[in-house]
Amino acid sequence: MTLYERLGGVYAIATVVDDFIDRIMDDPRLNANPKVDEAHHKVARAGFKFLVTEQVCEATGGPQRYTGRSMRDSHAHLDITAGEWDAFLDDLRQTLTKFHVPDAEQGELFAIVEGTKQDIVLPRSTR
Ligand code: HEM
Hints:
The protein is mainly alpha-helical. It has helices at about 5, 10-25, 30, 35-40, 45-60, 70-75, 80-100, 105-115, 115-120. α2 crosses α7.
């Protein structure tokens, strides 16, 4: 059974993404980075949630295909630090716990997320 199926498919994933994107967009630890604050708040949340839902569905084995920009192209200009990355993971942990995602599935999701870190946190970001 794919991770996508074990998570409950697109309806469950979209619900989790909805909570998570609200959480990161309102997180003062992330909005302390002025580039993140500006970029996050110039786009409609619903569109951002749509793209992240597509991406999570594809990465977990669902039939959807991600149609947004690459992780490097959409984050390189933001100077995201290792500390901001950790705050982002903390938000993810809070959302997954809220929805009672079991430890095994949480572990698989964190492994997928970790795989993108080198495209999002670039070495020169040391604020
Ligand atoms: C695995 C981790 C992450 C994933 C999967 C992810 C996913 C995405 C996606 C799908 C987009 C939209 C791409 C597009 O417009 O085509 C995006 C943009 C963005 N992300 Fe992330 N993101 C991650 C980590 C982060 C972190 C850690 C931060 C902030 C600290 C962040 C802040 C932003 C911002 C501000 C934008 C808008 C950029 C712009 O339009 O200029 N992301 N992200």
